Amino acid sequence: MSFKDLIAQSRPREKLMDFGPGALADAELVALLLRTGIRGKNVLQLAEELLEAFGGLHGLLHAELDDLKRIKGLGGTAKRAELAAVLELARRAMAEGLKESPVFDSPEAVKQYLQLHLSARPHEVFAALFLDARHRLIAMEELFRGTLTQTSVYPREVVARSLHHRAAAVVLAHNHPSGCTEPSRADELLTQTLKNALAVIDVRVLDHMVVGRGHTLSMAERGLI
Question: Backbone phi, then psi, for 145, in 5-degree steps?
């Protein structure tokens, strides 16, 4: 292999075309999204700085658009918009898959979907995945924010949204900004309250998932549903 060939294969675009996307490091993939560097810093260096600033690829993909402004070279909108678009494409692709087959045919896909939506939120968010009679996804809605307790999550609202979507079942979910996914006693009580309320309209609670950074716990798998 010539020196010229070696140089070409060290470039992310050429490397991807020759060996496939799996051969690229995280920084190389981010560099392809950024396309260009800034004065005194090439695109790969900028990508590495981004990953370091946000604690890796997971943190970067969950960063808010305004958070990216603090990185020199991302003050404009173009690069930040492209990063946000990639994350949204991933969310939509996962949602399409969950709409085509029962959610528990692929429980890991549900967990990954919730990771993309909830794991990086700085505050607690309570959400529900509304499912049809075949347990395919109809819609996901974020229903409540803040400290989640039996008094701040209103069963009547969860019931109302279930009726709106004509759901046959739901998967409940909320995040723990601390990163710990161990369900609290309050989580268990809230689950039981919602389970009882939804049973009145013949809607089953299939699971309640607790989302932390990089990990999602299923209360059903723990035997808590």
Answer: -130, 155
